[in-house]
Amino acid sequence: MQGQAITPQRQELPLAPAAGSTLEHSVLTPGDVRKVIIKRKWVILACLLLGVLVAGYFAFLSVPLYEAKAEIDIDLGRSTNIGISDLVEQNLSGEDASSERLQTEVAIMRSNTVALDVINALDLYHKAPFSDIFKDSPYNGHLTPGQRAAVLSTFSGNLKIMLVPGTNLVEIRFRNPDPKVATAITNAILDAYIERDLRARYEGTNRVSNWLSQQLSALKKQVEDSQQQVSRFQREKNLLGMNADGATLVTSNLQTVNQQLAEAQADRIVKEARYRLAQTRNPELLVSVAPGTTLTSLRQQQSELMVQYAQLKSKYGPDWPKVKEAEKQLASVQSSVDTEINNLTNRFQEEYNASVKTEDLLRDRLEQIKQEAYKANESTAEFEILKHGADSASDLYDAMQTKLKEAGITAGLNSNNIDVVDRAAEPARPVSPQKRRDLMFGFLGGLLLGIIAALFLESMDDTIRTSDDAEAVSGLPSLAVIPHFDVLKKIGVGSSDPTALEKERNARVSADLISYTEPQSIIAEGFRTLRSSLMLSAVDREPRLILLTSSFAAEGKSTCAANLAISFARRSARVLLVDSDLRKGTQHLKFKTSNRVGLSTLLSRESGNEVYEQPLPDLPNLTVVTRGPIAPNPGEMLASRSMEDLLLQWRLEYDHVILDTSPVLAVSDTLSLAPHMDAVFILVRSGVTRKKALSRVRDQLRRANARLLGTVVNDVDLRLENYYTYSKRYDYNYKGYGAGYGVTDEEK
Fold first, then answer.
1. Exposure pattern of 497-517 as b/e (b: 16+ CB <10 Å)?
2. Which of 197-206, 265-274, 528-537, 635-644 has the lowest mean pLDDT?
3. Backbone angles phi and psi of 440, in degrees to 5
């Protein structure tokens, strides 16, 4: 034996406590992950390739999309004077209300009304991708419900409107295959929203005007009724001594004073309105009510200085002397503006107070004249009251009609609180697809999918792959590991050009008997390891009768038995290899001998010592007994007394007798031989033998009182054996193995 070869690291595993029980790993170690990746590398590579191909398809074949961006500032705190602030007042208080209002404005920009306005304005029905909707049914000026839903869905799918966190800025983004169309749509959305906002404010003012109109209608009827009541009263009372207007001197005075009081009230209302307007200290509003004052010129001067200051600051920076000078001028003008505002406020307050006093005096005078009128003529006083009531209603009607006209005019001059920061410019590069990003996502997605698929397949796979798996399932030690090899790709030990003697020698046996054709290979060392494990299983007495079995056919049982026999024969021991698989034995094919006679004829006493053959001249101590012709009752023959006598005879004549038997789960032939054996081991083929099958074979052999030594894992990918990674540093100069299964076509 040439040194320690590929003996797996073994630990003392307790026998399974009951039939069918298994010892499974409950923790997925890095070594297990490495095994899964190696074993399922083609699945992972396929998923990886699929992910890259899908990403490449979208990256290189999808239509490029261009994104245009516009930005607006929605300042909800900006004042919007509509000229009738006493009737309409809009207040926004608190950050929560402001945030909700901004969200409302964003929702308005996303609304179907704005979308349809933009679609109709730009005639997007004939531009991609909207034109694809009308392939089957062309657009004829009207949209069906389905077409309308599809158009709006396409529009909203390419539209993105979002608030810039921490600001009042709103970004509008739109994607389209044509950069010019994307730019036009983005700007159109901006214009449509601004126009809608102005229209909404105008309509709101008009609603107030309509309410005033309704009130005026009722007031007009009241004035008419009052005048009719005065005429009827004069006619019924037959009032005389009146002037041309139908009133006496007292009543004339009363009328005059009442008219003056109405004018004073109207004047007081106007002056009170100007005074309250002045209290807002809004220069624009004060200029509108006092256009000829110094404040107008100061505001114009302030605007010019602000423009000059902004230009100087952007050009020279805030520390430039002229910028500082401009700041001082602005401060001076602002001080003058504040002073002028204070002056106007004081003046309006004085005028308001004077009008209040005048109104009070006139009201007192009116009461005096009324008393005089009552005393003079109750009828005349009543008439005058009715007359003056009608006049007051008429004056109020005139005043309200004037206010209504003012409201209609100022509605069109209403200012909004929207400021366009950046209009959309034509994008230079598409935003989608981003080839590098898409390929990277495809690569990572494919890799992740491959790993998930590999783990899923691994969880579904119940086959045994490594010696650790065999030990965990069976509870038996792993005696050896036979590497994965391909007889068609073996490489010669000495040279790549074998000599005629080597060719003749290799032609005596089948190519899978590596222990004979390639004795220095790592595969042959695996069989020598198995030989050593069997010999060490009983130190005092070496096992003579050795039985090799498996779960099912095509697991490499015959190849392993033949190579093991050759390994024993190289120790100069007398070795007998018996093909006891009387149904499908293949040892005659491996040693290229005749199968005319064999074990079947020997048990039926149809032949004698001619069944014992030495097929290898350089190994005369190796004797082979083939199966012979297929027997009609192989199970009975192997369980016969003749077979027991042969086993006793072979035990005396040979050092080691190796029986290549039938698979246990396929037929029961092996169970009759197992109790007579000194050593029985189970062959497991990596990736083929299932865990339940191994457990059942173990249980059946135990019930047959077989002396089970352990398992042998055949056709193993050494990369899956954890211990193999630690042995790479050692070099035994093993050659002559490739990548295959070590199972011939005949065995399959």
1. eeeeeeeebbebbbebbbbbb
2. 197-206
3. -65, -45
Banded pLDDT at 77 (limits 50, 70, 90): low
| Per-domain residue ranges of the chain | 224-420, 475-727
The pLDDT, as a whole number, for residue 703 is 92
What DSSP state is assigned to residue 461? -
Question: CA-CA distance, 291 to 299, in Å (whole number)?
Answer: 11
- pLDDT for residue 659 is more than 90: yes
Q: pLDDT, tens digit, for every residue of 287-296? A: 776 676 777 7
Helix axes 95-109, 179-237, angle to 10 degrees: 110
Q: What is the pTM of this model?
A: 0.49
Q: List the one residue out of 251, 224, 254 whose CA is nearest residue 237.
A: 251
- 10 Å CB burial of residue 30 (0-12, 13-18, 19+) is exposed
- 416 — pLDDT class (breaks 50, 70, 90): low
SS3 content of the chain, % helix, strand, coil (to 5): 55, 10, 35
| Calpha distance 246→252 (Å, rounded) | 9
Handedness of CA 578, 583, 584, 588 (dihedral sign): positive
Contact present, 467 and 8 (Cβ < 8 Å)? yes
Which residue is it, tokens 């899978």? 512
Among residues 650, 473, 631, the alpha carbon closest in space to that of 22 is found at 473
pLDDT (mean) for 440-446: 87
Helix ranges (H only) for 110-178 are 112-122, 145-158
Q: What is the dihedral of CA 619, 625, 628, 631, to 10 degrees?
A: -160
Count CB neighbours of 149 within 10 A.
13
**Domain boundaries 475-727, CATH class:** alpha beta
Is the distance from CB of 673 to CB of 646 less than 8 angstroms? Answer: no
